[in-house]
Amino acid sequence: MMAGAAEEPLTLFRAGIRAALEAWPALQIAVENGFGGVHSQEKAEWLGGAVEEYFFRNADLELEEVEDFLGELMTNEFDTVVEDGSLPQVSQQLQTMFRHLQRGDRAALKEMASLITQRKCKVRATALTTARETDEDEDDANSVEEMEVAAMNDGAVTDGVCPQPPDSQTIKEEDIVEDGWTIVRRKK
To answer: How far apart are CA 11 and CA 173, in angstroms?
Structure first.
């Protein structure tokens, strides 16, 4: 076989990991807003290698184990708890790509990385502070800090979510209840 004629499955797997992590809105927001400190970008790049190593060191991983691993990394490295429903989706993508790697299926690896990259969208989060009057006795010192998320797909601002495949779960609405918590409901 000629050198460079076909990409190696391991190279394609690494590219797929990078594509999946770069397309993950939770990680994008954490990096963009420096949730991991001044080295957030470096941590995001390191995350790809950590994910690759995790798959190679652990045989027959269950989806929940991959989710837990990614969730722990986000919590420990970026001080971020991911509760937007994206952990199962990203974990499934990574697990599927690893199975393709194990079978040596170059075409499937290349196709998955390409599809993930095509669906990637830029996410921008800005902090909003809103004062809320819940009782006449309470002073205006009580405020709620929210994150407004605008998703960009090919330069066009969307309604806050990136287009997803029809079977995925997306955030439908947000309600702020009395005590300042935000309830996020998913589309069924």
So the answer is: 39
| Rounded-to-integer distance, Cα 84 and Cα 185, Å | 9
Q: Give the max Cα distance, the chain.
A: 79
How do beta strands 122-131 and 143-153 pair? antiparallel
Amino acid making up residue 43? K
CB-based burial label for 66 (10 Å; 0-12, 13-18, 19+): buried
158: tokens are 């969307």
Q: Report yes or no: 171 and 159 within 8 Å, Cβ to Cβ.
A: no
pLDDT in tens, 143-157: 444 454 554 444 444
pTM of the predicted model, to two decimals?
Answer: 0.64
d(CA 161, CA 187): 12
Q: Provide CB contacts within 8 A for 25, sequence distance 6+.
A: 84, 86, 121, 123, 149, 151, 162
